[in-house]
Design a protein that fits this description.
By secondary structure, the chain is an alpha/beta fold. It has one domain: Amidase signature (AS) domain (Amidase signature (AS) enzymes), CATH 3.90.1300. The chain is 35% helix and 14% strand. The chain contains 16 helices and eleven strands. The chain has an eleven-stranded mixed sheet, with helices on both faces.
Length: 466
């Protein structure tokens, strides 16, 4: 449920004049929708046009630029050369001399970064309200949260400001805001995309995520930014790509009794309808034991992994005097209750949980879960921010701990108009298989207002810059 329509989609373009006109339109949308509070730093339009002119010259000379002129935004905990990185903490801010590798690869492909976008401070939260730069609402209803921590990333895509956005996902930040804004959210396998240039949050679990309007766009973006990075200690060499899902497949699902929508049964009904669609597509439902998934998820914010967050952030800024929001500080200082013994015990327990989950995946091709249990209004979040934040992560916290890849896709809307999503999960390195399968599930998905096809052009079609 975004505010775009088929009539608003742009045609294929090839000239500097046409590309610059569409970027002008993007800037007009950004300027007219400041109340969304999704941008922290907007790059000067004149600077973008200078870059675009140079890119058009390169394309005309024969350089392959598959994303020529495609506008994107970047979550403000990912470095972009020459733009401030704040992680939603102004006191922490700095201007990097080098972009994150994922940004470098997009720029090399001709994409144009329009600026840095809002997030839950230091990516600690799933609501999108924990920022001194303001709270982001869902594009569907301003009374409801956008989800976080990649709030600005999701909103800039769903509102039609950019074609796609980079976010991060440690415990659901690349999926939950996609669900509450009716767009695609891709959480790659850990280590598939380099984390060099990310402000660390929970380094062993952090990964770059992608927000976009179509599966095809997401596949192309992932193919550009992925790849082993020997300078990143968390990068992993990619094995042979997993085979596509068969026409007849088995999908894991939760039993009705195990669903948790925390008081909104209509959300459970939407999940049941998603499972029915999977069955009609040729899927055989297999009810799983969700216990190991839920137990692993509890470890992220209720276990010693919060100490890894504390360790990472405390090396960057003074926890007590560094300008952190009270809720961010409260979350981080809760790490004090954990010991080294707790940390090792949790690691050992996690390995046993992984084996249990692996045995379940041996009997299914994918697992389908709600992207989030239910949406919350701003007033509800204000009353109980930590408890409700953890409820938001009930279906997402476990993915990186259990080494799964994930894809959040739209699943319909509630009676109040709020979008809800489902997330497809698979074992590590099944990312492209998930994307291929999602196109079977969403054959009628809407195109992007700023779809990659609208901006991308071959070097032969590109005109020289004026």
């Amino acid at each position: 449920m975004t505010q775009t329509s088929a009539a608003a989609r742009t045609p294929a373009v090839s000239t500097f004049a046409e590309l610059s006109a569409m970027l002008e339109s993007a800037y007009q949308r950004i300027d007219s929708e400041r109340e969304r509070q999704c941008w922290i730093h907007v790059r000067p339009k004149e600077e973008v046009l200078i870059q675009l002119r140079s890119l058009c010259r390169d394309a005309a000379s024969g350089i392959a630029l598959p994303l020529l002129g495609v506008p994107f935004s970047v979550k403000d905990n990912i470095d972009v050369q020459g733009m401030p990185t704040t992680a939603a903490c102004p006191e922490f801010g700095y201007v990097p001399q080098q972009s994150a590798q994922c940004v470098e690869r997009l720029v090399a492909a001709g994409a144009v970064c329009l600026g840095k976008v809002n997030l839950d401070q230091f990516a600690t939260g799933l609501s999108g309200v924990r920022s001194p730069y303001g709270a982001c609402a869902s594009v569907a209803d301003a009374r409801y949260i956008s989800g976080g921590s990649s709030s600005g990333s999701a909103v800039t895509v769903a509102a039609g400001h950019v074609a796609f956005s980079l976010g991060t996902d440690t415990g659901g930040s690349g999926r939950i805001p996609a669900g509450f804004n009716g767009i695609i959210g891709i959480k790659p396998t850990l280590g598939r995309v380099s984390s060099r240039g990310l402000v660390p949050n929970c380094p062993t679990l952090d990964c770059v995520s992608i927000f976009c309007n179509s599966i095809a766009d997401g596949r192309q973006i992932l193919a550009i930014i992925e790849g082993y990075d020997e300078t990143d200690p968390y990068s992993r060499p990619q094995p042979t790509e997993a085979a596509p899902l068969p026409k007849r497949f088995c999908f894991g699902r939760l039993s009705r009794a195990e669903l948790k929508s925390f008081g909104v049964g209509e959300c459970d009904d939407l999940y049941e309808k998603a499972c029915e669609r999977l069955a009609r597509l040729g899927g055989k439902a297999c009810e799983i034991d969700f216990t190991p998934f839920a137990e692993a998820g509890e470890m992220l914010f209720s276990g010693p992994w919060i100490a890894e967050r504390y360790s990472a952030v405390s090396k960057l800024i003074d926890i007590d005097k560094g300008g952190l929001l009270d809720v961010t500080r409260d979350v981080l200082v809760s790490a004090e209750r954990f010991t080294a013994n707790d940390a090792f015990a949790a690691q050992h327990r996690l390995l046993r949980l992984r084996r249990q989950v692996q045995s379940q995946f041996a009997t299914m091709d994918i697992l389908a879960v709600p992207t989030a249990p239910r949406p919350f209004t701003f007033s509800e979040m204000a009353e109980n921010p930590i408890v409700l934040n953890n409820q938001l992560g009930y279906y997402s916290y476990f993915a990186n701990l259990l080494d799964l890849c994930g894809l959040a896709i739209p699943n319909g809307t509630l009676a109040n108009g709020m979008p809800m999503g489902i997330t497809l999960l698979a074992a590590a390195w099944h990312d492209m298989a998930l994307l291929d399968f999602a196109e079977r599930l969403l054959p009628d998905q809407r195109g992007a207002m700023f779809g990659l096809k609208a901006y991308a052009t071959t070097s032969r079609e590109a005109s020289a810059a004026h």
